[in-house]
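Researcher: Predict the fold of GGDEF domain-containing protein.
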Amino acid sequence: MLREAMKSYYAPLLILLFFGVMVFVDKLFSQKIKRLFLLEICLQLFLMAVTWLDQYFAFMGDNGLVWRLRNITTCLNFAIGPCSPMILVLIYDTGISGKIPKIFYVPQIINFTTSVLSIWSGWIFSVSISNVYRRGPLFPMPLTVGFFYLLTLIVFSARQQNKPNRRAETTFLIAAFLGIGSAACLEVFFGLSFMIWNVSSVCVILYFLLLTTQKILYDSMTGTYSRTAYERRMEKLNFKLPCTVAMIDLNNLKQLNDQYGHSSGDEAICSVTAAILKQKSRHMKLYRYGGDEFVLVSSRMCEEEMDRVLKTAQEQCSGGFDLPVSFSYGTAVHQPGDDIHKAILLADEAMYQNKAKMREGKAAE
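Model: Structure tokens for GGDEF domain-containing protein follow.
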């Protein structure tokens, strides 16, 4: 069993250590998120060590000291195990609001307390003086609490579906939930060992890579695609696929920044992007091209449809300022065989013409 444990955990241990170095030197995430990921890695390494020791003590007979040590390792497994998915929820929420109610921690506090008391009560587990392990009536509690936090993570992601790529993120989290759930079933019902933390470590690493990809391809402030994603999309479309493009530029942003501050300017930008994204067309993608410039691209919508979508978005823009929050736009069509940057230039020219007309209309009022 010891050799089996070494074989099972050798690769995950090395991978987690390398992963820890990668997180430590990362420049994309905030210090808080990096600390939470490093805490998650340390927790996984600790629980792997505890699981290994628990299996080691299980084969050491009925020595009195071994019985006490096995009580401790078993208790730690049950008491701390749900902290792993709980930390992942904290990582996710840090990128959204950073405000989790205190009731969020109650299930884990109850689980931790019950696990510790089980050393004497046998509620979740019991280890007899002869070193025989038995499950208690509340044995499912740690797994239930862990799955509760995983489901919370999925719900948090599903509630952000108005932002790009959240569907892929939610799909990944559901797959991770099923993977960890199947590993737990293999351990609980079929007696296989060292499954949960192997699968969990892989899921945590993949989750970090997913968040890294999102940092690169998506604009965190507006929820739109980034300039990098825009350039990749242009490479794919150029000379090949037909599409309709729109150049979008905010109006009065300089005045907003000068009069109310740059944070108000950011609010105006978010208000405009939210109005466009609210149209919920799965055939269009919005890219942040510059500070207050955006490019809308669709391979399915005609120019008239895109014009209708943007006019609706213009009507839905809002802002609590004396200056109105609005945007100008221009559209163009790209055909296969043409350079897509020509269509972008045409849309840009149309956008400036639209901006001039809006200024003239405002001056006439």
